[in-house]
Write a structure and sequence with these properties.
This protein has helices at residues 5-15, 22-28, 32-44, 47-66, 80-154. With 155 residues, the chain is mainly alpha-helical. It has one domain. The longest helix has 75 residues, at 80-154.
């Protein structure tokens, strides 16, 4: 190599840039609609949302099956209104969840890119350290050879 170790270290320090924060970078690039889609995706895909839908279904069907006939509003066994509302919820949530998943995928790609940059930097740092250690080994050998030569001349 044409460069000496101190020059390599200095060159590395000049090239070494600050690592990007993928989470902040991704968050800054989101519009309000993107944030809403992500919020819906994260909350619909939770046990809390499942329990809300489950309890809503149990209460709805229980009321329309067991309540006095005069107070029932969605006749058993068809539950037409419940089916209509459930289908509308599904139709609206399906594309919203897909949008949220696409945004999460884009975030994962940014994180992977940043991880790759970090790995490249770590590889360069390790290479610089190894070169530095090799140079130190050479210097230690030279010192030991000089000491040995001095002992032979004195003894």
């Amino acid at each position: 190599m044409s460069l000496k170790i101190p020059q390599l270290v200095d060159e590395f320090k000049k090239k070494h840039s600050v690592v990007r924060n993928a989470n902040i970078e991704h968050q800054q690039n989101l519009s309000k609609m993107d944030k809403l889609a992500l919020w819906i995706t994260e909350h619909v895909g939770s046990m809390g949302f499942f329990f809300i839908i489950f309890m809503w279904t149990v209460i709805w069907m229980g009321w329309n099956t067991l309540a006095p006939a005069a107070t029932r509003f969605d006749p058993y066994p068809a539950f037409v209104l419940w089916l209509f509302i459930s289908n509308v919820i599904q139709i609206f949530l399906m594309p919203l969840i897909m949008i949220g998943q696409n945004l999460q995928s884009a975030h994962a790609e940014v994180r992977a890119e940043v991880d790759f940059e970090i790995n490249k930097k770590a590889e360069q740092e390790i290479e610089t350290i190894l070169l530095h250690l090799e140079e130190q080994d050479k210097m230690i050998l030279q010192i030991l050879q000089r000491l040995e030569a001095n002992q032979k001349t004195e003894g």
